[in-house]
Amino acid sequence: xxxxxxxxxxxxxxxxxxxxxxxxxxxxxxxxxxxxxxxxxxxxxxxxxxxxxxxxxxxxxxxxxxxxxxxxxxxxxxxxxxxxxxxxxxxxxxxxxxxxxxxxxxxxxxxxxxxxxxxxxxxxxxxxxxxxxxxxxxxxxxxxxxxxxxxxxxxxxxxxxxxxxxxxxxxxxxxxxxxxxxxxxxxxxxxxxxxxxxxxxxxxxxxxxxxxxxxxxxxxxxxxxxxxxxxxxxxxxxxxxxxxx
Length: 245
Description:
Layout (H helix, E strand, L loop, with lengths): L5 E8 L2 E8 L2 E7 L8 H18 L31 E5 L4 E2 L5 E3 L2 H14 L2 E2 L9 E3 L5 E3 L6 E2 L5 H24 L14 H21 L17 E3 L5
Parallel strand pairs: 6-11
Antiparallel strand pairs: 1-2, 2-3, 3-4, 5-8, 7-10, 8-9
Helix pairs in contact: 2-3
């Protein structure tokens, strides 16, 4: 059987790339942990890929979250550089149709309520996304419902201890921040919910961790920010009818 072809590259960073494949039964997303840029980057990429695999497997069946795929023949598809990745460096998942939040032209009035519901579904299964501040990780599906992608930093929790609760609060804080920004930008009065305060760990990351991260990614790996977001002055999406529960 002829190997599926790479349709386009969805994302590339210092730890690998994400590719869209033309599968026999529809599009398939392939993450390749190729690393590059500094010693040990491939090992880090594999670790991040395993975190994503574990989270997606635990979240199986949730609408708005991709499912992992067991398609060994898709590992043989050459990338745009002509190289065939090793099986242990590949994660296959289903494709979710949708526009990233920053590019959406229309949002249902209850979009952010549904997004919070989705985040809480993750939390009910002991999974925290940990990267919801990035608008490209939030998709608006054709029916207006939210979806989540990029679970490289996701954490799985067996207990509901302090670490879990802190990360839950951070996920919900980022959802609330998106809600507030889009409500102001589109001229809709925001809800009266109080703003969530940044946790101690999040504050420490912004003060200490993020400068180191920026040094590694932008200076050593020579990558740009690479995370598009909607400009402060728009254009902003228009509001459509709510999608309901």
